[in-house]
Design goal:
- The protein has 12 helices and 13 strands.
- The relative contact order is 0.12.
- The strands form 2 sheets. It has a 7-stranded parallel β-sheet, with helices on both faces.
- Helix 4 links the parallel strand 6 and strand 7.
- The protein is an alpha/beta fold.
């Protein structure tokens, strides 16, 4: 089959692309400060190419990311292609990795939905909420099948976007395992990982932490630029325990690993999550977890974490106190967490995603 016009290629790269089975929107894999969607994208893009060498894939990017993308290390991944201004795809299937589809560029279309929290709470500006909602509705309407990353997200897609359950497939995220044997000594340190924003419930976490005595410390590891971050940072500055609270800003994985190896408690009382990768990652690092008895966190943490009402400072404080004071409970939560993470893997996510492709293409 004829190749694509050379005007879309990168200078010096092969001109012909030809027919491919699967095209994926790789836009969100390019991120200087990788979020959960970037982690998901990179695991899917590389995992599919590695696990299914008999297939041919193409990675597509939007303009801002197009020139920053590198050529794939896998021989079965074709040239970069620019979105959304595409000619007709020589592809069986297009996969939108983050609930965004401007048009149908292939005969079959799959969209991954990570969360819909923007539609359900005061977690963004009204303008962003309207734009996000329209984008989500278009993606739901244009996809033949929808991948939801949790049962919770699947229900939200069905209820908020009026998608029939028969079009939804649940494919959970994986877990990032430690790079080697765990070493080092645990410290009286409570760790939170995530952007400083209203949805993450950082203010209530800080208020709960203030009830714990020294030498316990709280480390908030994440970019301080989320929705209503200024108000949260002001509350931290005024805290009676300010000298025991550290706001690191965004940190690279190597530095985050050092914190994960030192922390004795992981606190993640977020108000709304479509999945909750930080919870599983903490369990993989053998840290007992306090998380919210709500959204997908109830699903991910059930049986392996202390689940609390995220709107109750007293409930969060009591869970932190119990883990701080009761070594036997920390040991039990660590054991349960090690069992829980065995239910999830990125390879499983890759294989289940490929199964969705095959369901549509045969």
């Amino acid at each position: 089959m004829a190749g694509w016009p050379c005007k879309t290629r990168v200078p010096g790269w092969p001109c012909k692309i030809g027919y491919v089975r699967f095209a994926l929107d790789a836009t969100y894999s390019i991120d200087s400060q990788p979020s959960g969607i970037a982690v998901y994208s990179n695991h899917l893009l590389d995992g599919l190419a590695a696990a299914y060498p008999q297939e041919k894939f193409i990675h597509c990017y939007r303009p801002k990311q197009y020139w920053r993308a590198r050529r794939s290390a896998f021989s079965n991944v074709s040239n970069r292609i620019l979105l959304p201004a595409l000619p007709t795809f020589h592809a069986d299937l297009f996969h939108a990795l983050n609930q965004r589809i401007e048009k149908r560029p292939a005969r079959h279309v799959v969209a991954t939905f990570h969360d819909l929290f923007v539609m359900t709470g005061e977690y963004s500006s009204p303008e962003f909420r309207a734009r996000f909602t329209e984008q989500a509705r278009r993606a739901a309407d244009r996809a033949d099948l929808i991948i939801a990353v949790s049962e919770f997200t699947a229900r939200q897609v069905s209820e908020l976007l009026t998608v029939e359950p028969a079009r939804i497939r649940v494919v959970p995220h994986g877990v990032q395992m430690p790079p080697g044997p765990l070493q080092g000594r645990r410290e009286p340190l409570i760790l939170f990982v995530g952007a400083i924003q209203a949805r993450k419930n950082v203010t209530r976490l800080v208020e709960a932490f203030e009830t714990l005595p020294p030498p316990w410390r709280l480390v908030l590891a994440g970019a301080p630029n989320g929705f209503k971050a200024a108000e949260i940072l002001a509350r931290i500055h005024e805290s009676s325990s300010r000298e025991r609270i550290e706001v690191t800003g965004y940190i690279a994985q190597e530095s985050l690993n050092r914190l994960l190896s030192r922390a004795s408690i992981f606190a993640f009382p977020s108000l709304d999550e479509g999945f909750g990768m930080p919870v599983l990652d903490a369990m993989a690092w053998e840290i007992p977890v306090v998380t919210a008895d709500a959204s997908a966190l109830r699903e991910i943490g059930s049986g392996a974490a202390l689940l609390v009402d995220p709107h109750s400072v007293a409930a969060i404080a009591e869970a932190l106190r119990r883990l701080a004071e009761q070594e036997w409970l920390r040991v039990e939560m660590i054991r349960a967490g090690k069992v829980k993470v065995k239910e999830f893997s990125w390879q499983q996510a890759v294989d289940k995603t490929y199964a969705v492709y095959k369901e549509l293409t045969g």
